[in-house]
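Sequence only, no structure available. Ideas?
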Amino acid sequence: MKAIVITKRGDPVAPNVAFVTDRLKPSAVRGEVLVQSEASALNSLDLWVGRGLPGIDTPYPFSSGSDGAGRVVEVGEGVDTAWIGRRILLNAAVVQHEPCHPDHRASGENISMIGEHTPGTMAEFFVAPAINVLDIGEADPVQAAAFGLTHLTAWRMLVTRAHLQPGMTVLVTGIGGGVAVALLNIAKHFGCDVIVTSRHQSKLDRARELGASHGILDVGTDWSREVRAITKKRGVDIVADSIGKAVHLSSIKSLVRGGVFVTCGATTGGDATTDLSRVFWNQLTIVGATMGDMSEFRTVASLFGSGAISPVVDSVHKPQDAKKAFARLEGSNQFGKIVIDWK
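Reply:
I predicted one. Tokens follow.
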């Protein structure tokens, strides 16, 4: 089958990306569906896979991809044949069930990621557990693929973990990336005021067009004073971040008393400097978030299905142009999602 593969570990990743036509087509085993890809979308995770994630022995050449939409063409044992022909959207987070043993204590949600731990959606066909796909009818597959992972991640960050409420003030760092734009979408859906940061004025301008109330140009210095000025010294209720070290202290200093800092990543590094005195005196909450379960996925996908929230697509590429698509992501040039069109 046709596929986009990362041929070897390296940094930068884009030079190691290739389009091939000789990959082995997978088959659905018990509990799985085989999907013919119509669209798949890139995420920062694809770059981390290409650079070599710590503790994971990636079998290069490897097809990454954790966002995908397409038609079910085969089902494994135990899966209803009614799935065949349905257009589906993937939730790549597969729950790993812990052993049922009297001496085993549950340690919280444990997931494996399609596209990270197992081959992903950057191929003509991919497999997934039937319980991890949703029927999306005749929705546009490019739009669907651009929606899935980022909006699920953003929903868990804001709603599940940070307890977002209508009318709050939310700060989103690094606007332009898929998750950041999804955070803006969801916060605006809740009627919140949204402040965004970026190193690029053009991205701030685009975010304002999409409903952001204020934009702060990040020049590498502490921008928390600007946040305080915008909020009349109050601060923001929630900071939603995926940048990490470079903006962490500014983020903490931007929070209102009782505010929440929620993170789903750390692209500039996880060894951030914080201010514990501010954390305890202001009773701040720091929480992490990763992906989301199928209940959350159904909820946020319903907003896509109803048209209440639409993803922002930066660009659409053919599989043969995958190297260019990876390079655009790696250069942080995008605003919204970069999608591969397999049709």
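The chain has nine helices and 17 strands.
Hope that gets you unstuck.
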